[in-house]
Each structure stands twice: as C-alpha cells, then as structure tokens.
Batch of 4 targets.
Target 1
Amino acid sequence: MAGASSYSGLVDKTFWMILGSSVIMLVGITVTMIYFIVKYRRSKHPHAKDIEGSATLETLWTVLPTVLVMVMFYYGWAGFKVMRDTPAGATPVTVQARMWSWSFKYENGKQTTELVVPVGRPVAVKLESADVIHSFFVPAFRLKEDCVPGRDNHAWFQAEREGTYDILCAEYCGDQHSTMLAKLVAVHPDTFDVWIEQGGGRPTGQKLLQLKGCVACHTSDGSKLVGPSFKGIYGHTVKVMTNGVEREVMVDDEYIRRSLREPNADIVVGYQPQMPALGNQLDEEDIQLIIDYIKRQ
C-alpha cells in the first residue's frame, strides 16, 4: 500500500534499502557457498589441505559489512529523528488505549471512537494506556508507537490525502486483541475546522460505553463476550463472588455504580476479573447516563 503520511516515503525508502541489501547478501553468500561446495568437493579433492589466508578478502569482508551497517544506521536514524521531532503548531489529540478499543480526545474536550484529522496539517498524538501495553499502528501512515500504562509517549503524523485508514493494535494484549480496531479519517482542513468547532458536549450513555471500551467485552443483544451482556440484566439477580464467597445480588443502580468504580468487588460467576476501574474516568452524571442506558436494554 502506498504511504499516506508526510514521512511514509522516507520509511519506505529505508525499508527497501535494507530489504535490497539483505537480498543481495543472501544471494551472494548462497552463490559463494555453492561455488565452494562444487569446487572443493571430496571427489575432486580427496585429501584435505590448508588454504592460506588472504589479507584482501579479510579486509573486504570487514569493511563492506561495516559500511553497509553504517548506511542502514544513517537511514534509520534520519527516519527516526523526523518521526520523533513533532512540528510546532501540530493539532494535539490524546489517544486512549484499553482492552480492547481505542478512543480519541481533542483539545476542546471532544471525544470520539474515530480519529478525525485534517489533511496537510501535522497532528501530535499523546499515547496513553488504561491497562496493558498496546501499540498504536496505522499501516498506511507507517506509524507504530507503544501505549504504555503509567508512562507518557508521543508521535506525530501528517495526512497527505483524504481517506479512511485502519488503526490496529500491534502488541498482543489479550483475548480480543484482534478486534481492537478503529478508523482514521483524513478530511479537508475546512471540513475538519467545522467538525471540531461543533465541540463535544456530554456523550450519551451508549456513547460513553463505546468511548470507555465497554462494548469490547459487553454486548446489548444477549450474546456473551468477555463479560455478561447488558440485555435484560437490570432488575434481575445474578450470582457473584464477593471476597471468595458466592452470593446473589440484584442488578440495580447501586450495583452498576459499584461495578464501574470497583469492578473486582463482585465478580459475576463464570467470568474473570479483567475489567479496569472506571471511577476516575466518569463523573456521577456519566455514571447515571450509563445506568439509564442499561435499564433500557
């Protein structure tokens, strides 16, 4: 796929240079090996004898690989420096990774599940993880950087043409790793300015569940994933493990509120304690919107 970011050409050039060098070395070494096998086969040389060394050959196979490695280093360093030096005035976006979804937060507070960016303008992404190590990977942009819990990381890119591009996680992060997908939408700068000026506003309960990655583990149609489905659960009793003791609890407002703030306090029987605490990411109004949404399922 042709690169779609400002530095994808540099990355591709480095890739093809290293690949081409590797192929040439492979062919050269293989041909030399076959030559020696044929030339010094036992039928032609039944008695082994010493071969004197060659200063010329030893110099060549020392100098040439050293030069090749230094050329690779130069191209790699040049590309790395460009990719790490964020241009001034870049549009800031916070990328929030969690098992198993992506969400994106803009400077004005707007939150989305798609990364919308303007064509021709640099975008600076701050990379965060709520749980384990993820890797923010946009193949068409030749961009891959890790999201590490408890540690700040960053990257930048500039989309060169309009379109919709895949975002993947390139670091194995658990059961639903392969479903950790999102879209990057590159639009005309004027379109982006109108879109971003619309602001965020408070998301609905359903939107909050998407933004916080809840739909990666919970469904609303009764099917089971990593966690129980929301469908028909409100107002019913469920069996949970509390401090190692099985008991039955009613799924009401207080149970949902506690599950969001302390997800490991009551583990529904048959499921593993994998849910991260969301208490510090949701205020009381957000929690109530989620409760109201689950009530309607």
Target 2
Amino acid sequence: MLSERMLSKVIENLGQKYFHINPTEQTMLPQPQEGKKYMLYMHIPFCEVLCPYCSFNRFRFEENIATEYFVSLRKEMDMLKAMGYDFEEVYIGGGTPTVIMDELERTIDHARETFPSIKDVSSETNPNHLVPEYLKKLSKIVQRLSVGVQSFDDDLLKKMDRYYKYGSAQEAFDRIRSVAGMFKNLNVDMMFNFPGQTEEIVQRDIDMIKASGANQTTFYPLMVSPVSRRSIEKNLGTVDYKNEEKFYHMIYNGFCGGENPEFIPSSAYTFSRETDAMIDEYVVNYEEYPAIGSGGISYLNGSLYINSFSLKDYSKRINAGHMSVMGKTDFPKRDRMRYRFMMELFGLYLDKKKWYKSFNTTVAKGLPAEYWFMKLNGAFERDNDEALTLTPKGRYLMVVMMRQFFIGVNSLRDEARAALPGDEHKLIFGDEDDEIKPQGEKAAHLNS
C-alpha cells in the first residue's frame, strides 16, 4: 500500500542519516541517572553455523575463543557495577547464548551476585539446545527462554540452513512441546515474509505455535540489510514486500482474533497468553539500556553507543580496564521524540502525559508530520489527553516502522563488520572450500 511505501522510505532516509559509526575517544558508557530504571543487555556472538538472513554480530563458534569472551563479559559487567548501575532485568541475546552452557551459567550467576535487584533473566537459544543436560541448568537460572525457530516448514528451514543445524520442523515442535511449563515465559521466535512463504505455510506456523504449549511468540517481519539481501536472495529468492501486510493480519487475527482469543498482543508483533510478559523488544519497557559484549548497542542519554565488533579488539579493551565502546551517535531532541514515538506505539500505548513531561510539548506539536501521517491513515484507535493507541492498520504501520528501523541498525552492523581483520572474517565466512552442511548436520544432532 502507498502508506507503507512512503513510511518505509522516510524511515530508510532517517536510518541513512543517523545509523553510522562515528568514532569516539570515550572509553566508558555514561553513568546512570538517579532514579531511572535500566535493563542490562548482554551479547553472545557465537553460533555453531551462521544463518544467511542474520545481521547481528556473530561468529562461528570456537570453544577457546568463546570461553575467553565470557570472562571478558563478566569483567565488563563489573565495570557497570563500579559506575553505580543496577538492574531488575537482564536480556541475553546473540548469536546463541547457550553455545557454552557452563559459561552462560557462570555469567548469569555473576550477574545476580553483582546486581542483587535482578528479578528476571531472558535468554535466547535454539531448538538443538532443548535437551535435558541444558534444560536442567537453564530452568534454574532463566525465567524467559526464547527459542529461535523462524518457521515450521521444512523446505524453508533447508533454504535457511536451519534444518541441518537444528533438525526438522517436527523435531523443533516436539522439543518445544517437551519444555512447555518449565519456564515462567517460553517464547518462540518466528519470521514472516520470506521469499517462497505462502499463506498455507504461515497458517501452519500459527497452528503449530498454538499446539506447542509455548505461552508467547514473536513474529518478526523479514528485515533485510544490503549485505543480508545478497545472502537471502542467493539462498531463498527475491525479497518482495507485497505479501507482508496480508501475512501480518493473518498472524494477528490467528492469535488475537475471535471472541475468546488464546493470546493477547504484548507489542505489535509479540503475542502472549498472559499479561505483563517479558518480550524480545525490551526497548518497549526500558527506553534506555546499557549493552555489554562485542557488537552490543546501548541507548543512553539520547545517544547510541556502539561496542567493538572485533573479538580481539573487544578483549584488548576490556583487559586494558575500560569498556568496549568504539562509536557514538548523538540524537537531537526531535529524533529522541521520534524514537520514543516509535517505541511506545510499537508497545501499543503512548503515554501523552509522560511524553509532555519529557519533551515539554505535545506529540502533535513536537512531531507534526509523523502524528498527522498516522492520524490521516487511520492509525489511531484512541487519541485523547491521556494516550495514543492503535487500530489494526496502525499496528501494521508500526511493524513497517520497526522493520525499517532495524534494517538501519543492521546496516550499521554491516558497516562495523566490514572493518574486521581478515582472521576474524574467517570466523564469519569460513574458508572458501568450507562445507556448511556437514557442520550443520553435526549441530542438528548435538546432545540428542
């Protein structure tokens, strides 16, 4: 639709303006502001084999490198403590955080000892790690487990090189089903609008999630940066957005439609069986957050801070006694307003009184173009002195905004990755004659 194309272009242009790495001499993150709540993000950049569509900072797993990395991560955590930070929640993403279970356990234990206020820990994982020896430890240290599945279609999984890594759709379903109820929150990560994906595939994905016993699912739209586009088109086919809106409404109505829906929306593309559930997009509940680990991105005091994407440089910086910050982008007031506008509406509720207190202006006056674009396109269900909420069309427009926003972030990651030294490129791409499928087959049956 025209509004989707216009919105995509606007957010794309903003991303090109702001998502660049501006080198900084600053070696530490800013200190916390008194009274403000923060969430801690930790990045674990290791996977057994790399997916063609992923733009996150990640490297092929090598145990000795990964073990050293976890040690550095705990040191960086101590630096935040010394600065006065405290956290109620921790989100551990990747990569695959569970790639070395013992090190992840040590790191979470260290976090709880360092920050006694921590209540909930969320960690990502993959289906091949849903095995007893991992789950026995995870169930004691993690409250929210997010399992990356992406699709329950075997043909798509093969094209994504996930079938050989993590097993078939049925194997993933059976493993998720076996752990239902083990965690406070069991989330299944899915994606939609892959090349070759059909309505039948999307409907089957919805049905499988409902039957799996998971109490939450996050359906991400395909987010294609310039670098990942080449890989996706090589492995999956040409990217086309013509089905995105149709698929999104299928997903939303599949989980939240009808008189007695099983799920409620926690964000524009996260659906939960319970209220107040932890979600993947922690930016909804925590506007500002420090990130530790190679490739982590913090948002603090209206600025983005980018950590070194090089494993060697990351270790060198930590061992020198300072954090891994290597780039910074400052957001002027209008762009801080844009960020708040997008994140709160993505979370389905923009608090106008909180907004005015932060910016000393209304939404309509502060962001007239954005406000009236959304209003004239029928995006607002509620628009009064208290809040803005969204119609079904508005929810889809927020999906478009988030898709383009994260494409911009992914382009920044591509820029950082392009500067890596040659030996670290091998950890991403391997040697030219490297066979990916045998590694995947080994990973798919790990501990099974």
Target 3
Amino acid sequence: MKVLHIIPSVSPTLGGPTEVVLNLVKALRECGVDTEIVTTNDNGSNQLLDVPLNQRVEYQQVPVWFLPRFTPRMKEFIFSPALTRWLWLHIKDYDILDIHYLFSYASSCAGAIARWQGIPYTVRTMGQLEPWALSQSRLKKQIYTFLTERHNLNRAAAIHCTSTSEAKDVRNFGITSPTVTLPLGVNQPIYLPDAKQKLHHLYEIPIETPVVLFLSRLHYKKRPDLLMRSLGQLAAQNHNFHLILAGTGETDYVEELKNLMTSLGLTSHISFAGFVKGTDKQLLLQGCDIFVLPSFSENFGIAVAEAMVVGLPVIVTPGVQIAPEIAEAKAGLVVEGEVDALANAIAQLLTSAKLRQQLGENGKNLANSRYSWNAIAQNLSCAYDAILAHQ
C-alpha cells in the first residue's frame, strides 16, 4: 500500500496542521506504510521555504515533494499550477490519498484529479466545518462549497475526524461520506531537568511567580486578547503571575496585542516569546505552571495535548473540540470564553498548587492513553486497508 498526503503548506508558522501531517506520516512509515507528502514551498505571507523543488527530499525525517507556489500568495488558497501538473502525472503511483484542509486549491485539485483517475481519497476537515469557522468569510465559503467543496467531501471514501464533535459538524454540513473518528497524537517529551528554574532565569521571572503559558499562533481565533483581559482583571486583584505568549502572527495583530498589554498595565507581567520549537518549546511546556487556550474554534488543539503529556494543567474553552474528553477525565478546566469565567478559572489554579498537580496528573494519563501516534497510525492504516478492500 502506498499513500500520498496532500497539504497546501508545511510552513512551521502554521503550527498544528504542519506538526500533525509530519508526525502522522512519520508514524505511518514506522508502522510499515509507504507514505509520502506533496505540498508547496509556501512559508506563510510572502515567504517561501528554502527547499529543493520538483524532487523527493527528506524533510523533518519524512519524504516530501515540494512544488513551487504561485506568487503572490493568495491567503490560505495557495494556488500552484506546478502541483496540478505533478498530481495529474503521479497520482496513479499511489493506492490512496489523504487530503488535509478544506477551501484550498491543493485539496480541491487533488480530490478532482483523484476522482477523474479513479483513486480513492480521505479528507481531514481540520475543524473547518465547525460553525464558528464557517462564519468566517461566510459568503466566499458558501460559493466555494456550492462550486466544489461539498462534491469533494461527498465523493471521499471517508472523512477523518479527530473528535465526535467534529464528526457531528461533518453531518450537520450535509456530508454523507463515512467518517472515521481518530484523535491526533503527541510525541513523548524529552524531560528537561530544572526546567522551571531555567525558564524563570531566562525570562527574568521571580521563582515564586506562577507562569501562565499561551502556546499557539497569535491570531484572533485563538483569543490571546481574551486571556490578556482576564489577566488584567486578576492583576487588579493583586494576583501574582507572569504570562508567556509563544507564537507568531500578523504584524498588525501582534501590535494590537502589545498595545492592549500596555493599556491593561500588564507590561511587566507579559513576555512575547515568538515562535518556539524543539528544546525551547519543551522548556516552556515543562517550566510553566498553567496552559491556557481560549480559542473560538479548535478541531483538536495539538498544543493542548502537548501540555497534558508533560503534566501541565490546562484551561480551554468549549471551542476546543477535545474539551469534553478533558472535562470527563478531569484533566483540566473547561470554561466559557468570557473574561470573568476565564479569570476565575485561572485564579483557581494560581491559588492551588494541589489542584494544578491533580489536573496535571490526570492530563498526563489522558494524553498517554488516548494520544499515541503509534496507535493512531495503526488504526488509520486499518482504515486505509478497509477502504481499498471496499474499492
């Protein structure tokens, strides 16, 4: 069995989607599935990845074909005539396609060519059918859905959902294709000794000050502004804390956040860490005290699972679609996306080391039992086998 994963971009700046496809393909290959990725050299905005084009290369330990992106970038659509030609010539070299993303050229093009050449494909909707996500650029998405996306989804051999909530969103969108519900995975961390002390030293934070972590793209969908407003309320009540915002975003939005920080009087309480990976990322996850992601919409939230696997207690909103699993396992706090509710939840954890430890241990147990890349890859491989047998 030979599988091709198609995704518009594997830019590190995209965060979760890039992490997922690279880790998923790596895990599938470790399970004996011959798997590759085809994508563009997009690196967000007007940037391009510095990678060899039109050839199979090893990238982040997995085989990837990079095709040139049309410039200038068309936001998330990421048009690529070269990708079209490559898919038309090579799609029959594969037994099944795994398409990541909706409302984007690469996914629509791959689905159309697959149908034309008789190759089965699956689609990962990545939370893009969640009501809040559909409300963004609503008219464009309605037109795109009418022209191609609904047909693309209804002709898929299966839709890969990461939670029961996402599967419901697929059905509510009127899609009749079978769904396969498999969570995403998280890599086991390499534990760093004295992470807390090193983190406090690096960011010049007093050792007795609890550290709150936001680790995601700085985007209004993720609501770092809500987190800052909640912490502004806690600062007015003399709570002791420091917030680290780890991630990148559009320059204008980051500037908005910095202005908000100043207006709330939080300049001495907040550090902007920028994009982090590897050891720097693990230092944050293992050295902080609380993880918060108050997102409007998150189909899985890979950073949430990464926090849980190291025992970091999490606070999320219902828009994070694994929130029901977190609540059921008592692995964190799930609160409405409002200033008072979020502030109260953070205050609970700031004032109770015992609660932080209890939630952290429950989260680690949940992540280790549910979010293993190896188990997920094996289950996905079985799903591929079933699809090919049915074909």
Target 4
Amino acid sequence: MKILFASSESAPFVKSGGLADVAGSLTRAVRNRMHACRVVLPLYSDIADLYKDEMKFVVDFSVPLGWRNQYCGVFEYTYGGVKHYFLDNEYYFRRRGIYGFFDDAERFAFFSKAVLEMIHHIDFKPEIVHANDWQTALIPVYLNVFYRHLDNFRNIKSVLTIHNIQYQGMFDTAVRFDVAGLPGSAGNILDFNKDTNFLKGGIEQADAVTTVSPAYADELMDPWYAHGLDAILRDNQYKMNGILNGIDYMDYNPETDVNIAQNYSASDFSKRGENKKDLQMSMGLEPRADAMVIGMVTRLVGHKGLDLVKEAFWKLMEMDVQFVLLGTGDWQYEKFFRDAVAQYQGRVGVTIGFDDALARRIYAGSDVFLMPSKTEPCGLSQLIALRYGSIPVVRQTGGLKDTINDFGGEFGNGYNFLTYNAYDMLDAIYRAAHDFSIEDAWEHHVRTAMQCDFSWGRSAGDYINLYKNLIAE
C-alpha cells in the first residue's frame, strides 16, 4: 500500500505535543511492515538547520486558494527510512512558532490544499491520505470538492485522526469562502453553529475517522467530552475507529538512553535507584531511597487534573513522599508549584519549561508517575513511565483507562481511580505508598510495568487493516 501521512508536526523535526510523536513513530512502524508510507508537513523556520541543510529540492508549483495563487516549494528528507516532504511558503511558515497566529486558518488551508496539489508533481501516488487534527482536516474536504473527479485522485481514500477534539479549527463564517476558498454550493460542509469549523468538515468528508484510543472513541459520543461535536460524531459513528497510540521502544529505552544516569532493563533494574538519587540531587531533594518520589511531566493546564493536585497537595505533603514536576502552561499552576518549592524545601522540585532530557530522568528516577487527567485522549506519558519502571497513578479516562489496570485486580500495572475527585486520587496514591513500603511487592510492580508492551506493533497493524479495508471498498 501507499500512504501519505499529513501532519502539522512530526518528531524529530518540530514538536509541540503527542501528535509529533505519533507522526514520527507510526509512519516508521507502517513502513517497517513493508508498506510505502511518507510524511508531509510544513517547512517551518523552527526546524533545525541540521535537517534543512540536508533537504533536497524536488519541485515548485502554484496552489489555488480562493482568489489567491500561492507559491509552494517541495523539499524532501529521509529519516528513519521514511521519506518526508516539507512544503515551503515563507509567507505562511517563516516565523517563530507553529500555531497561534492570526492567520492560522489561511496557513493550514493552504497547507491542506498544497498536500493534494503536490500529488500532481511527485512520483508518489498514494492510495490513502491520512490527515490529523483540524490543521489538516480540510484535506478530505478538498479531496471530495476539488480533486475527486481527477484520475490521480479517483481512488484515493481519506482517513482523519482526532488526537484532541478540544482543538477544532473554529473561525468566522467568512473563512469558508474567502480563506478556504470553497464554492457556495459546498459552504455548508464547514458550517457549524453559524461558524466555520474545520474539524467538523473533515469528520463528515473523510472515509474513515479514528481517535487515539478505544475509550476516547466511546467518550466522544458524550457531550461532556465532545466539545459540541457529539451530534456530528454520532451521525458518523459508523466510520469511527478507536486505535490506541504506542511509543517508539527504540527511542524510549532505559537500556540505551544516554539522558539518564544509569542504564537498566526489565530483567535487571537493580541499578535503577542510581537514577532516583541523580534526580533527587539535581532537583534539590534530599537523596533518600526510602522516600517515594512522585513525578509529573505535563502541560500545566486544567484538563490535566492539576486542580486536584492543588487541592490535595497539603495532604500529599503529610506523607513521606517527594514530588517532582516538569511543565509549563497556565500562570496559576506555575505560581502554585513555584510556591510549593519554597514551602516544602528539600521535598518538592519543579522546573517550569520543557526539557526532554530532564523528562526522561523523571521517568527513570521517579517511583510513581501521576496523571490525574480530567480528559486524556490517549496519553503517552503513562506508556513511557511503564517503559522506565515508574508506576502510573491515573484517572480512568480515555487512553489511561485502556492502558492502566489497577494492581488491586487482575493484570494490574498501576493504580487508578474513577471519579474526578482529589480524595479519590489521594486514595490511589496511598495504596501505591503502602506497596512501595514492601520491597518485594514493589519490585514485582516495577518488573510488571517494564514488561508491558505498548510499542507501535499492534497499533500499526490496526491502522494497516483499516487502510486495507478502505482500499478494498
């Protein structure tokens, strides 16, 4: 099969969240199963020169977008055996950052149209175009409205993956015509509650829609989770699929990770404690092997459950635990955790920002990894924590529900709680602390966690089956 994977970000080139990890890892996993899979993304200024300097120019062409005709240059670079196309337009992409600009609607409408226009000019004719989130949700729309009648596009099937439905690409009504360039007869495709909604259009026009976990696919039928799109999703439930994300086990590997103080494996993690000591020393904590270290690597935003952590923090500090956090986001949470460092010196370590090397040291050095999310479409952090032997404590929602089973039952690999309540979260932490105090029990838990397999193997197989079924239709 031939798959073109369109994404607004992809690791290692440019990353703001989990979408980049999926774009970077899933495509390699599909390619490793002997399918032709290529990636296309914008040529941002933020992409490092070490990649740009090795890119090869392929072709340039003009992209019609409403009343505009915009230049697009195509460059290519192969990473991990996967060919990546980078679409160049300095007006749209030569700026610092990738999202949050006044003209994001036009920028990603251009990118979506350019992805399809590129197919005329390259030596790769995909059978599947796989779009991701609102930034590329116009690809299925444009495919059906402008390209479906052409020979190169007649048999192409489209897939749209919703990584987080909270972000939908909602804009003013005029955007669908002036910016997106849709004809009047197709304007209703993007119409939603008298606004323009890119994601809504993509859901309706794609041949298949996926989410990043089975539980999240079910949750999106509920208005509480769907951010207004539940009726649209229920109407299109027949083409919905929940496929769990994985992680790259070559990249996230405690046996070879150069970012951690001491390498170890599931068969021999006797030296894992050296990473705990290193983390404690570097974060200003008292180096105690007997103190349970709770780690968090997260965006500091409300839906990550940080209000539960704030509410319960004083009770948490009554326990013999230490707390480490890496993240950036809302000022109220940044201030709270900075204040906690001053109040609980030697027991709380916080770094505001993001540092991939430090994140890995937290995974390798913490005993427990806390994710009390209000919503979590899939979550990758709990999977990385398992890989490094940090036991997840999570709320049962989305992908957390699909991946973490409580040690109190069969097939346990962590601790979970159901209701969005600070004291239910504390109860799960109390149970973890009890087991931590029993050395043999905790060693069993760590070994069990590290033996879990959430690599891309099974998930890539699910996507491949989806692609095959679409092509066969």
